[in-house]
Design a protein that fits this description.
By secondary structure, this protein is of the alpha/beta class. It folds into two domains: 403 residues, 3-Layer(aba) Sandwich (Rossmann fold); 123 residues, 2-Layer Sandwich (GMP Synthetase, Chain A, domain 3). Helix content is 33%, strand content 24%. The protein contains 19 helices and 31 strands. The radius of gyration is 24 Å and the shape is globular. The termini are far apart. Bound molecules: adenosine-5'-monophosphate-propyl ester (PRX). The site of adenosine-5'-monophosphate-propyl ester has 21 residues, from helix 10, strand 20, strand 25 and strand 26.
Length: 635
Amino acid sequence: MSNYHIKNFEEYYLIYRKSLRDPESFWEEVAEEHFLWHKRWDKVLEWDFKKPDVKWFVNAKLNVTQNAIDRHLQTKAQRTAIIFEPNDPSEPVRYYSYRDLYHEVNKMANVLKHQGIKKGDRVCIYLPMIPELTFSVLACARIGAIHSVVFAGFSSKALATRIQDSECKMVITADGGYRGEKTIDLKGIVDVALETCPSVETVLVAKRTGETIKMQKDRDKWLKPLTEAALGECPAEIMDAEDPLFILYTSGSTGKPKGMVHTQAGYMVYTAYTFKNVFQYRDNQVFWCTADIGWITGHSYIVYGPLLNAATTLMFEGVPNYPDFGRFWQIIEKHKVNQFYTAPTAIRTLAKENLDYVLNYDLSSLKILGTVGEPINEEAWHWYNNNVGKKKSPIVDTWWQTETGGVMISPIPFATPTKPTYATLPLPGIQIALMDEHGNEIRENQVDGRLCVKFPWPSMARTIWGDHERFRETYFSTYENKYFTGDGAQRDEVGYYRITGRVDDIIIVSGHNLGTAPIEDAINEHQAVAESAIVGFPHDIKGNALYGFIILKEFGETRVHDNLRKEVNQLIAEHIGPIAKLDKIQFVPGLPKTRSGKIMRRILRKIAAKDTSDLGDTTTLLNPEIVQAIIDGAL
Ligand code: PRX
């Protein structure tokens, strides 16, 4: 029995127990057998959750791209590494073998070097889902530069904040991007962002849409002529196990986004391990994760996890409803996709459409279905299971986070019996704890609690870029010696976990994490606004949608309110991006506040959810009368 590939439920238990008994030799065995190291580690793990300080594979030396690419060239050079399915289905598909990938990444790495990028420099990647995105990510890893991919749906202000925070020296972008029928002026967004980003010396521009764009002399360079002139071989920089591999920003409940820092060896070992097991990947299968590489799911399960296993990974540029709602199913048929990994919001969106969109395509290649990013409701789970998986393909409901780097709780297909809406059991090496409101660990089953992890795992984020204290405070200060996830969870009678949602001020809308404070800050910039509070409310498709309660400086006439609503959403789109727009905006005379001046969001959440029968204790409010006024005006 190998630790690396779990094949049945009995093996899962045996391996899981082994990983608890002796986590260090467990991970050592995985690391030893499956990866290429320039120098072996002196120690598998050093940790202290108080500081917090976690190091895996201490003093080992490696390069992640040699593991994800070079290592496969001897026997699998001709295997397809990437299938690129363009937005427009009539445009030809592009296939990149592992040999092609090697040359593309090496050329790009040489370009970065020629442009002055060195080990440790930060490179911001703001690209649509085109192959250059994967090449850029891996080119950074090749030379030891730290990539910071920013989802190409973020606004110029949001992009600027992220570039400034990690002082990126370069931005890699495109002339534009396609999303269904729309084109997005990415270069224009970058130009505006860079007005406030003095650290950026160079902008490399990939050609995609062919739109006319402005190129700033000396700063902006077309990528293609540079890669064409570059050599297809670039020596891999030898990295320390704990050197940063990338920064990826995620929303915080307050303040600016948190630049989560992931390091080399632990991230590599864990994403490879989880990819292999959660998706039961076998040689020559085709794996498709529909996420964008701008999110952690794309980093770990479009790029790193699959390539580290010499898999064929599909990259899709477009959207599920273009040219029609059958697009996902058409792609599965066309490329004979074996594993399909998507988000509950996508499933709910597609389930609402005519079933013929699904039935028109041959989905018999599918073996495993996955979901991620938000709780999946029972109805969506069954729709996915019945119509897409035809009750033959297990659904892996994978719970994890940007911070965890890889999947933490998930069924192992064909091993763990699935249960609708349950992420089921922790993967080997993952020690979960549920905590009660007094800060004690709950040992029994059939309980609700706050979800923590009590032992380090290799791919956990090591810090927040430039703010270690915030890292400690956010994740390690709530419960002693535990990583607190910010999620609530239930444990059923057999020990299966079901994630119930965030217990902090982060709201997950269509699978995207949004902090309430940054949205409120954006709204408060409007000159007519005195104060605002955002809460989430249940939404059939998006899981949650946003409800804004806004106090105006002058209440004014109702007819101006519609304009104000538009302006508020416009401001949000400018500051954060269209994903953070509010579904409902109610102008209110006041907000329910505690005596210490804190907004009581619990009450607002109930009003937004139209569930006002039991508002709980409101006696501690400074202004209890306001509650009824808000209920009376609720939308
Ligand atoms: O609340 C959990 C939810 O998504 C949060 C993490 O979001 P992000 O860092 O953007 O990463 C998303 C992709 C890994 C978690 O704290 N979440 C993620 N997966 C699930 C989930 N909620 C319920 N079920 C899941 N499978």
